[in-house]
Amino acid sequence: MKRLIFATGNMGKMREIREIMDGSGYEIMSMKEAGVDPDIVEDGRTFEENAMIKARAVHALLPEAIVLADDSGLEVDALGGEPGIYSARYLGEDTPYSVKNNNIIERLEGVPDEKRTARFVCAIAAVLPDGTEKCVRETVEGRIGYEEKGEHGFGYDPIFYVPELGCTTAEIPELEKNKISHRGKALRKMRSELFD
């Protein structure tokens, strides 16, 4: 069976990917399940560049497969787009998200609602067996809340408030979140680029 490899070790991401790519006719695996774990230096300046660096690195080891990789993060307008591409490494690689979230809330002290705009960004890159490269980008717009709320999700979800939903993305059950999430939207867009 033809393989579609996603350059991640994150099983939460893999669940979402399998759900969205279901019925594509490909066996969907993480890079670890495919037996590769390259040391990848993400030194791009954009989400797209970092996603492509990961996809190319894994494709070099598995050239017969379609390889997908994503790079995603949070952009806060009042902080000049921070943490941006450094979202995972913000305040240090192993810093708990509760510390990162509280740092962002503190830095926005006194900033009114309408200036607390932010977005989750996800870029997904693909390298095909013939070397063709594709990249898509999707976002979810919202605002930074005043405190952490919600038990679902991970990372910055507890402080990311979506006005249309009246709650944070951590207050939405996972299946619901996949329908509106930046990664869910980007995966569906990539699926249509690849298979429709």
How does this model look, in words?
The protein has 196 residues and is of the alpha+beta class. The chain has one domain (3-195): Maf protein, CATH 3.90.950.10. Helix content is 30%, strand content 25%. It is built from five helices and eight strands, in the order βαβαββαββββαα. Strands 1, 2, 3, 4, 5, 6, 7 and 8 form an eight-stranded mixed β-sheet that branches. Helix 1 packs across helix 5 and helix 4 packs across helix 5. The longest helix has 15 residues, at 47-61. It starts with a strand and ends with a helix. The model has no long low-confidence stretch (mean pLDDT 94).
TL;DR of this structure?
The protein is α+β, with helices and mostly antiparallel strands.
What's the helix and strand layout?
Blueprint lengths: L2 E4 L4 H11 L5 E4 L16 H15 L4 E11 L5 E2 L13 H11 L9 E11 L5 E12 L15 E3 L4 E2 L5 H7 L1 H14 L1
Parallel strand pairs: 1-2, 1-3
Antiparallel strand pairs: 3-4, 3-5, 5-6, 6-7, 7-8
Helix pairs in contact: 1-5, 4-5
